[in-house]
Amino acid sequence: MAEEHGRKWDRCLADTAVKTVTGLGVGIVFSVLLFKRRTWPVAFGSGLGVGMGYTNCQNDFRLPYLIHGRMVKDQ
Question: CB of 37 within 8 A of CB of 67?
């Protein structure tokens, strides 16, 4: 159980880091190309990445308790 929990945390942190860096990169590209080097696209892109990573983590930690849309209690 603890090993599985650790793997979920590792996946969660790696996924959040990838999504944040990708959002940051897309924000930088849009900032340079379209928005005359303003900072809000960078913050917006990285914020979207953090939000998507957080949502994926929530779903990943709830996953073993969901079976066909129903909550199952531990025995």
Answer: no
